[in-house]
């Protein structure tokens, strides 16, 4: 079974994070919500408190297939300020493991050089930080093992792209049909 970690920092965009968690759990893909705030209780950008499954320091990421960065402000800035996570992002990229980011979070990948020469998308205000990317206005872009998406309104498409990357197009199509989502 695939294993995914999604990282939560205070100010994360709730829909972007929880949609991914919901869709992956519907497909029996193991996903852990990991707090970088030092507390399992993490409050999103709209005041919704979520209890993470684990703290970053408690995790062993060796068996993880993908890491996911939700957007939101100041959540994206808080993720970026957490150096152990940035080291993990760099390691995943160097090891050719999946890295996914939505909304403002693709700017983190751009600033770390991960998007150079890749098709990528983000929230419009973050497009200037997609250093070296071929910027797209699609709902979601998958280029190699990097998946990016534009924002809350694209959260289902983003989640389905993650399912497709891990379980194939047929699995993502079946899930889309079950949740009444036109792909």
What can you tell me about this protein's structure?
With 183 residues, the chain is of the alpha/beta class. The chain has one domain (3-178): 3-Layer(aba) Sandwich (Rossmann fold), CATH 3.40.50.880. 33% of the residues lie in helices and 22% in strands. The chain is built from six helices and eleven strands. The chain has helices spanning 14-26, 75-81, 83-94, 106-111, 155-167, 169-178, and strands spanning 3-8, 30-35, 41-43, 49-51, 54-55, 66-69, 98-102, 119-120, 134-135, 140-143, 146-149. The strands form three sheets. The protein has a seven-stranded mixed sheet with strand order 5-2-1-6-7-11-10. The protein has a two-stranded antiparallel ribbon with strand order 3-4. Strands 8-9 form a two-stranded parallel sheet. Helix 1 (14-26) runs parallel beside helix 5 (155-167). The protein is globular and about 40 Å long.
Brief digest:
Helix content is 33%, strand content 22%. The chain has 183 residues and is an alpha/beta fold.
Helices and strands in order:
Elements: E1 3-8, H1 14-26, E2 30-35, E3 41-43, E4 49-51, E5 54-55, E6 66-69, H2 75-81, H3 83-94, E7 98-102, H4 106-111, E8 119-120, E9 134-135, E10 140-143, E11 146-149, H5 155-167, H6 169-178
Parallel strand pairs: 1-2, 1-6, 2-5, 6-7, 7-11, 8-9
Antiparallel strand pairs: 3-4, 10-11
Main traits of this protein?
alpha/beta; 183 residues; seven-stranded mixed beta sheet; globular; single chain; 11 strands; two-stranded antiparallel sheet
